[in-house]
Structure formats: structure tokens, C-alpha cells
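Appendix B, Record 12. Input sequence as logged:
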Amino acid sequence: MIMPILFQGTRRLSFALLALNGLVQAGTAISVMWLIRHLIDSTISKTPGFSLISIGSLFLVLAIASIGLRTLERHLAESLGQDYLLEVRQRLFGHLGRLSPRTMQRFSVGSISLRFGGDMNALRRWISLGLARLIVSSMLIIGIICTITWMNPPVGGGVSSVILLGVILSLGSGRKLWHKTRLVRKLKARMLGNITEKIMQLSVVQVCGQSRRESRKLKSQGVALADASVQQSRSIGTLRGLAEATVILATGAVLILGTVMLNQHTLSTGSLAAILVLTGLVAAPIRDLGRVHEYWYGAAISRKKIVEFLQLPTLRRVRGNRSTKSSEEGLVTIRNVFVNQALSAVSAEVQPGTRVAIVGPNGSGKSTLLALISRLVDPDKGRISVNGTSVRKIGHRVLSRNVGMVGGDFPLLRGTLLRNIRYRNPRVSDTELQRVIKFCQLQELVDSLPKGLMTRLSEGGKGLSSGERQRIVLARALLDEPSILLLDEADTNLDATASAILEQLLDQYHGTILMVSHQQKYVLMADQVWYLQSGKLVEQGTPTQLFSSTSRTAKLFASPLRMAS
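Logged structural output:
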């Protein structure tokens, strides 16, 4: 089941209570009608009846009951919507965590945010305001119409016919609203994606002098969204107008038929007054039903988008946390791996404690290879093993404990410095925490911050230097000394301190290291060098072997552009 079942568990009880609430509200309305009829008929006929004080007291009791019933209705409706949203949101986020980077590249941040924001709100409006009122209002309307029909069948038939006609007309007009609501959502997602991208990359917009151009683009998107929203509101207005017209026509039908029957002495004055009051009481539920279309179409489109997102293929997760401990801690085996448009028939093996430098031109599949080992991507064909076990059979949490990764795609998170450093293992010991802080030379940074480790960092670590950010990211990856360390161009934008730390790491680290690098000094520190080209492993050997020959590796680092860098 992709989406949670709405009528399930405690929500089933909530729906039953809402239906009961509607019946009780109908009973309250009928009681009001009965009191009015009794008061008027007994007054006109001068027959003994309840005293005015008794009738006034009953009206007060019914008014207080109505307040309690509507309060309970809103409580049940909102609790129902929030409970369902909680389950949908958790399912969405869980699915998001299982998507591969290749799949995520198809979506903008704004588009994904809309799933958790606008789409969630549309579902809540439908359940809490639409479906809940549909249940209660339907019970109330049915109860009132049945009472009017029992009192006088012709009048009840006239009111029922008018309400039925209004429902049919509303269904016909609602079809236009579907297309307009879908267009508004599409334009809103497009604009939100554009705004999110520009906020995240504001420095690019400014340095390229494109602020005015982007402003014009945003205005164009805003105008299109505004026009579509106006058209949508017009359709919504039509539906609400039909609801109002239904109330007016129902009141007119009661007055005309009631007057005729009053003149024929087949209907008492008190009964006519009571039926008019009931018709007035049914007005609010009819108006509520007029908004049900609005909520339903918005929720239906949002639900479709959520289902499409939940149907995206994910990386299959292993149940439990199967350990990777073996006698060869740090062994990496790659067997005949294919990744569409990235890698082709790549096979290699890394012995424990080996340093492997992966080099090659841009787009040759270097980063993809590291992503396979950390299981951010699954191969289309072939097998990746860590410590003799396929990564497909290793629990994700265990794999993350054994494989640390540093790269430009793994920035700092919003939160405290402490949270960022120990993110891989929040329960890490103070001894281990201090070890990585000392190794990455972060103590001076910690001491300079106003709240030390409890200082909050902004998203991406803005406000810190690139070298400081890189050292924090490296500390996070080194926590608990993973047996395999993946460095995806971790040697870029380093200050002198960070560069010295990386050299020390390559010289002293006890685990296996695979690094993508464009700097010859780090490549020369490796035990093995792999040269990738067009997704194929075309050359491998020791730095001594490859740099002392006319190999592709030697030519890559001997190029004028490479030497200049």
C-alpha cells in the first residue's frame, strides 16, 4: 500500500464519532423546530403548553449543546487530519531517504518541498474541512429533510428536489475547477523551485549581474500564477454561488408550497414557521458542501503527486543491521559493475589499508564509483562488496559506520557544531569526539566561537572559511575510525592547515582510503592509482609505475592546464 489507509485504526473511530455528531446536530435542529411549532401553534390556538420560561430554558440548553457539538466536531476533524498527515509525512520522508542521488536529480528542492508543504496542507483541508464537514453536513441535511418530509411530504419533496438540483449543478461546474486547480499547482511548483534555487545560489546571480533578469523571470511566473489563481477563484466562486442559490431556492420553495398549503388548511402556521427555521438551519451545511469540491480537487491533485513520488524506485534497504566485521576489515571488491551512462564493466579490488587514488578526466565516473561503495547508488549490473559482503546485504546504518565519506555533495547541516561533528554517531564517546577534534585541529575554532561546540551553524556552514568547513566535514567522516574512507575531491579549496591534515591522514590512517583527486602531490602518496576514462577502468598501477612512463595518468598531470593548476 503506497498511501496510508484513511479509514484505519483510531481514524475509523473518529469518522464514526463525526457521523454520530452530525446525527446529534440534526436532532438539535429538529428540537428547535419542534419548540417553534409548539410555541406558535399553542399561542394561536390558545391551548395550554410549556411556559415561556421553560421554552426559553430549552432554547438555552440547545444553544449550549450546539456550541459543544461544533467544538467537538472541529476537534475530531482536525485530529483526524493531523493524524493522517503525520503518517503520510513520515512515509514521504522515509521514501526520500531511500532515493538515490540519480533519482533526486530529476527534482528541484522547491518541488520536493511542495510535497511536504502545499500538498500536505491540501490533504489536511480535504480531511479536516472537506470530508469531515461532508459527513456531518450530510447527516444534518438528511435528518432535516426527513423531518420536513415527515411533517409535510409535498414541502419535503420540494426542498429535496431543489437541493438535489443544486448538487447536480455543482458536480458539473466542479469539473472546470479540476483543470484550473492542477494548473495553479503546476505554476506554483515551478515558481517555488525557481525561488528556492535563486535563494540557494544568490551569490551566482549577483556575481553574474543577473538580478534584474531573474526579477523579470519571477514576475513573469508570478503573473501566470496570478492569472491562473484568479480563474480558479472564479470557479470556486461559482460553486459557492450555486450553494447560496440552492439555499435561496429551497427557502422560496418552502414559502410558496407552505403558503398554498396554509391557505388550504393542510399546514399549520407553527409548522410552516418551523419548516422555515429548519430550512435556514440547513443553509450552513449546504454552503459547507459547496466548498467540498474545492477541497477535494485540491487534495486529489496533491495526492496524485505524492503517490507518483512514492512510486519512484528506491535503493532496497536491508532489514536489521547485519555486521560487516571480518578478518579483512577494509576490503573492497568491485565485480563487473555497470551504471548507465557512467560506468561500464569496471572490476577491481582494494586490499585492507590500501590508499587508492582515482583519476581521470571530468565525467569519467570517478564520483559514481565512490557513490557505489557508499551505496548512494546501486549498479545496474555487477556487485560491490565491503569486507567480503555485498553492500546490498549490509544494513544501511552498519554500512555508514564502516564507510566515511567527504565531498562537496556532503555539506554541513543547520545546527550546532557538536551536532555536525558527531552526526554519524550521536552517542559517540567524549574521548573519540576529542580525538577527531584534535586530529582535524578544530580546537582553536571551537574556542573562538561564542558558545564553543554548542554554537549553531547556518545551512552549509556559511560564515566559516572553506578550510574550516572542510575540516569539520572530515572530522565527521573520521568519527569512530571507519574501516573505509572515501574522499571525493576533498583536496579542493583547502587552506594550509586543512592541506597538512589531509597529508597526515593519507600518511597515517590505518583503514582503506579511496580518493578522487586532481592534485599530483596527493596522488603520489597513494599505493595504487586507477585511471578512469568514459566509464571504464583503463589503467591501474603504482604511482611510480604510472608517472615514470607515457601512461594516461602521466599525460593527464603533465598537461599545461594541469600544471598551471
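DSSP finds 21 helices and twelve strands in the chain.
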